[in-house]
């Protein structure tokens, strides 16, 4: 049975599936009930699973995550929705000091099977705080796992896998893609493991690493480069903590060049870690330093110039050129 | 034989305890909301907050509300036409905002949310300046110091703490409780019913109480936080929250500009006098959607809206003014012209708002630009030049 | 002619409004604290919370408090001898903790701070297990599920939300309000007077009220948050905070184990019955330093301490028990032996607590170890081996 | 006039000086008044400057930073003390969404001349949350400046310079050093600029980069290495955002090898960014990849094994050896 779905639909179907499969799965957040979330990712869930399992919370992110910690201690598997990336910070303390550390603190006796869903990234013409990319901060925090989906089919599978994980997962959803492209979902296949990266386009001249919203950009860049006779390999990292670097090292050893792209600020973004690791592991294979294409090191600007702030096809190609010319 | 606390029902018991006053912490006062003007436009009296309003003042309120509504409908239309990315409508909240805005003195300071267009107007901020952030050309175009009106704050509740800190600064500046009406100052922190659940807002109550800061917490309870009804945030009337922190709370009819003005003014005066914070709950209703991207039909009944239309803040003042011969058709017609001019100003001005230059993205990250930012700016400038105007 | 709110003084007015009851939200009750035993050890009666205590029960409370104090003094001594890095003393808070701890049923669940050694003892946690985190050998050695007693929480206030969420889980499990005393359950969230200022604690009040969660907020107001007096956190009695959130608050004499027991039990029963949250303020005093590294002489008067010594929770119960012939010298002597044994257990046990293996640092970062952690573990193991036991 | 002072004393003297020089300077935080702070850094200030300028705050970090924002808007220059590194997170939202963005949001009209002092790092045998190193998260946030002092004299000057800055500064103090070594303070010299790194020991074989508590470790390592005939150059980075990489690049171009050490987790720590930048700028000079020696990617462990978690002389030397053997 195969259907064409958007990312929003994939996530919605995945959530529904997880709730059907396990009565301990709960959804919590602002406006997740009747409204179905501001992006409609939880559309219809409260109607079908009731107010006890799809919980409209008071307007307080620390409260949402903090009560979810209690729910998890009681044996539930809460899936928390943060309405927009920029509003996760009031919950930051609960996430880094409680959610991330509970398993460690308790020597594994009190695991935190919690998923914190965050629509992230820019490009939707929004006002301040609605286009942030906070992943590096979470990936820097031991005890959290961090993943980012980039397409409808991954959305469907990854959300279920994240919910099934006994470790807390920060689940990043590229909001710009929610209602963009459709893809074919075949529910009968076995999905890749959650914490694995994936080569989404094979190539030989340079490796482009991306995740979430920039996967599409990277693929478009590869398409354009192909027209110029340059063959780019594109890897969708998918998991940001842990990183699945095996396929990345293999690729860079073949191509000798790597470009990492993400919307988050370059300074101390995921690209920094990936660059450091590639250099450590592939030192003698590198023909050029790993180059990084990301959001600039400014606060997210007014949306009319956000496409200048965000990495795009041209900036990725520019970095590829610089790498090739190095 | 087990003693039990369980015989206390909450609603009724608390009401008993709070006594008949709408002012928590006050032994006197009439039942229910503070109201000076009924939905039908009848002037009613109030033991604690009544005052006389001159004809000019009343017409002023009316004009303010009509123009504020025009700003709102014009901006909503601009959003529909693609000129704004989003707009946060205030429809229905005009009286709450004009009442609060007009109670201010020049030396007072305001910390708004993202919906205080009416208060901005009272402060003298050109409404065109409000459109920039909704259009996406800036994050706030006005200088807070020009009108003592802070920038819009989008992270819910954050500004309640800023307001409290600012008020603590006023205490240190010696502009509280001196008795000089041109000197004594206070701060208003605006926020919504939903915001009352944020830690920051409750911490602001704690700091304000602890330092007796001259701040008025002005909560527009418009009954909704996007799709969530007020009941999700509080099971008792919101103004009573103040009781738990040891300062007065008062619920005023937020669709009654006279009552809102009177109550806010009293609370501000209390603050200026050095008597500390007050929570004012302006009980009103969000007649529009949360923002232009919201679809309230998914979560609320149209009946509700119909019910509140009968309480329209502008209609009720107009009824009163007409009944008492304080406005006539000429006045209304002139005001219509003024509103049309304002509308024109907004439409033309909005479309003319220039897009920012890409390189302006690097401006003001710091007061002193770092070499790092300078390098990124230069790099991007060179990169842009490399396209020679032909960038895809 | 300006109406003013300024004639309201806060303290007195609020007291008027709250009425004579110590129970905010309650129309009845005696003046002041709930107390069943005076500092002199006189049994007094209370209209709302009185109950009969059997001799066995009373001796039990006494024994509990004596042993709890022994745990505390023993741990303090261990710290002085360098066996613990730090210790958070509970001296003076024994009645508050034993009263609260003994009111629990097995199916109830407790979220402690870092000072709830007496409650831990009531839950059956081996006191030796408490020492690990203060010694620096672990972050909490007991299994929360064994005794329904959570791990100590050091980030102030965070656990109030965990407690509320846990209580919401109980609601979903159908163990609230069934009427079955072996089934119905509730949660206690412990925190201090200082913690009442944290956003998290106030948000916990909001969530608990909104969902009517079966949670008792048990605040030990020991008058100090390190060097800051309670006045910095609240200008009205803390139990009244609950009023602002729409659930009952009650102030109990936290140095009176009988009253604390009775009030907590009533609040727990209310929660188990499905009637929602209660705030219990146990009014007590931190007779020791904040922790063994603190020096309270820098910020508080020794007079204060002397004053509170007269209210010692153990002395007062002993006076009552002796006066009524409920304990004799033999009982006290036997208890002394028991306490000495406990002291011995702690001293010997503490010194024998093994240091963790360096490589255990990599355990339990995740439930499923990642390759990254495995690699770091292996790398460090190899590195350690390279020193062949000769590491500097 | 020259005196021997500890780091605690240097900071205390610097604060006092700043308060004397500018009446707008305020100190806010938990227990900063009568107690003088749990580390006594503000000792005596309330007595001399009064309760209006040295403010004991309610126990709420978001409240402290949020009210400090308001104070700054009113024209004050608040110096906020966070009691321990692990307690900065309740204030994280105010710091990253308000303090960091206010200048940008307001186009420079509402600057945030605020200093947030954080005693950071481990090694004092403390319980959980008292030994964290949160610097990377702040350095990743545009709009914040982040510095770390490593010695008494720098403490004295840097705190004054941070207070004088019109930009918000996260000011990290290595708590383990507060009452450790003394140094000679000569108040008549002109201090280095705040946002500059500094070579603290010259060498030729490899460059060791450190800041805050690891500067001492790096110097000890250099001392030990010298005994083995290996010459290490040690740079005290001092400023983490902006980074002052000029001296670092110069050094690495000479030595061809770099090791970065900090107490923060290696994954996405400052070392990642520094490694990425060095590789970008000094690609052809590098004889080995930049190696990183930091806290492991676990939560901070129980203190009895914290010295295993923290980088020390031996682990730095081990990395130097690996670099030299590469
Ligand atoms: C911290 C934070 N969380 C979530 C949001 C998203 N959000 C924007 S407005 C809003 C509802 C606010 O409701 P209320 O406080 O009642 O104000 P109103 O919009 O009704 O004026 C929400 C949840 C936000 N802006 N900030
Ligand atoms: C979020 C946070 N901020 C600061 C601290 C440091 N701290 C530890 S205990 C304490 C005082 C707590 O006072 P209170 O809540 O009254 O509890 P008590 O210690 O008196 O039992 C402080 C400030 C902390 N642990 N967590
Ligand atoms: Mg609202
Ligand atoms: Mg206390």
TrEMBL record, chains B, C:
InterPro entries, sorted: Alpha-ketoacid_DH_E1_comp, DH_E1, PdhA/BkdA, THDP-binding
Key word Kinase present: no
Pfam families in alphabetical order: E1_dh
GO biological process: one example: branched-chain amino acid catabolic process
Domain (Dehydrogenase E1 component): residue spans on this chain: 63-340
Keywords (A to Z) from UniProt: Oxidoreductase, Thiamine pyrophosphate
Cofactor: thiamine diphosphate
Molecular function, one GO term: branched-chain 2-oxo acid dehydrogenase activity
Repressor recorded as keyword: no
SUPFAM superfamilies with a match to the protein in the record: Thiamin diphosphate-binding fold (THDP-binding)
EC number: 1.2.4.4
Name this polypeptide is given: Branched-chain alpha-keto acid dehydrogenase, E1 component, alpha subunit
Naturally occurring in which organism (per UniProt): uncultured Nocardioides sp
């Amino acid at each position: 049975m195969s259907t064409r779905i958007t990312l929003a639909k994939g996530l919605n179907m995945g959530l529904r599936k997880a709730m059907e499969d396990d009565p301990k799965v709960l959804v919590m957040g602002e406006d997740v009930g009747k409204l179905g979330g501001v992006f409609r990712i939880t559309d219809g869930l409260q109607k079908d699973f009731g107010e006890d399992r799809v919980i409209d919370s008071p307007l307080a992110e620390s409260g949402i995550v903090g009560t979810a910690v209690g729910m998890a201690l009681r044996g539930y598997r809460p899936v928390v929705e943060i309405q927009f990336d920029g509003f996760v910070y009031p919950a930051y303390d609960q996430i880094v000091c409680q959610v991330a550390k509970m398993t460690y603190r308790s020597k594994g006796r009190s695991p935190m099977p919690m998923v914190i869903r965050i629509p992230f990234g820019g490009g939707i013409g929004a006002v301040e705080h609605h286009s942030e990319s906070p992943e590096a901060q979470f990936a820097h925090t031991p005890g959290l796992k961090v993943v980012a989906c980039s397409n409808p089919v991954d959305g469907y599978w990854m959300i279920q896998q994240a919910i099934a994980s006994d470790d807390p997962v920060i689940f990043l959803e590229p909001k710009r893609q929610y209602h963009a492209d459709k893809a074919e979902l075949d529910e009968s296949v076995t999905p890749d493991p959650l914490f694995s990266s994936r080569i989404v386009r094979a190539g030989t001249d340079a490796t482009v690493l991306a995740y979430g919203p920039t996967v599409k950009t990277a693929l478009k860049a590869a398409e354009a480069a192909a027209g110029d006779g340059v063959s780019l390999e594109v890897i969708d990292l998918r998991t940001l903590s842990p990183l699945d670097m095996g396929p990345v090292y293999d690729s860079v050893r073949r191509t000798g060049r790597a470009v990492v792209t993400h919307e988050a600020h370059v300074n101390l973004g995921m690209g920094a870690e990936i660059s450091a690791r590639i250099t450590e592991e592939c030192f003698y294979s590198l023909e050029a330093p790993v180059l990084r294409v990301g959001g600039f090191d400014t606060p997210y600007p007014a949306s009319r110039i956000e496409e200048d702030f965000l990495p795009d096809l041209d900036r990725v190609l520019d970095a590829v050129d610089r790498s090739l010319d190095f | 034989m087990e003693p039990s606390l369980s015989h206390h029902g909450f609603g009724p018991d608390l009401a008993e305890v709070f006594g008949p006053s709408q002012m928590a912490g006050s032994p006197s006062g009439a039942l229910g909301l503070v109201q000076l003007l009924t939905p039908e436009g009848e002037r009613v009296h109030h033991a604690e907050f009544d005052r006389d309003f001159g004809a000019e003042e009343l017409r002023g309120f009316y004009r303010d509300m009509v123009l504020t509504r025009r700003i709102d409908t014009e901006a909503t239309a601009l959003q529909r036409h693609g000129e704004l990315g989003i707009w946060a409508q205030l429809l229905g909240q005009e009286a709450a905002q004009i009442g609060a805005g007009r109670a201010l003195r020049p030396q007072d300071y305001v910390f708004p949310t993202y919906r205080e267009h009416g208060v901005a107007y009272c402060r003298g901020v050109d409404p065109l300046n409000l459109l920039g952030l909704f259009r996406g050309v800036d994050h706030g175009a006005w200088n807070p110091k020009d009108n003592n009106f802070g920038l819009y704050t989008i992270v819910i509740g954050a500004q309640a703490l800023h307001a409290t800190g600012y008020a603590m600064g006023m205490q240190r500046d010696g502009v509280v409780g001196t008795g000089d009406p041109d000197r004594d100052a206070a701060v208003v922190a605006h926020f919504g019913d939903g915001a009352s659940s944020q830690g920051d807002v409750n911490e602001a109550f704690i700091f304000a109480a602890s330092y007796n800061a001259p701040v008025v917490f002005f909560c527009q309870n418009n009954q909704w936080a996007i799709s969530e009804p007020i009941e999700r945030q509080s099971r008792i009337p919101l103004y009573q929250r103040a009781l738990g922190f040891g300062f007065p709370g008062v619920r005023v009819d937020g669709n009654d500009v006279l009552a809102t003005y009177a109550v806010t003014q009293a609370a501000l005066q209390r603050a200026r006098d050095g008597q500390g914070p007050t929570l004012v709950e302006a009980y009103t209703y969000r007649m529009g959607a949360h923002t232009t991207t919201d679809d309230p039909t998914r979560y609320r009944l149209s009946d509700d809206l119909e019910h509140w239309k009968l309480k329209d803040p502008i209609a009720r003042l107009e009824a009163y003014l007409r009944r008492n011969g304080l406005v006539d058709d000429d006045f209304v017609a002139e005001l219509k012209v003024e509103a049309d001019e304002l509308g024109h100003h907004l439409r033309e001005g909005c479309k003319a708002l220039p897009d920012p230059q890409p390189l302006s993205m690097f401006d003001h990250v710091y007061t002193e630009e770092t070499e790092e930012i300078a390098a990124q700016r230069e790099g991007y400038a060179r990169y842009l030049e490399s396209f020679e105007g032909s960038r895809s």
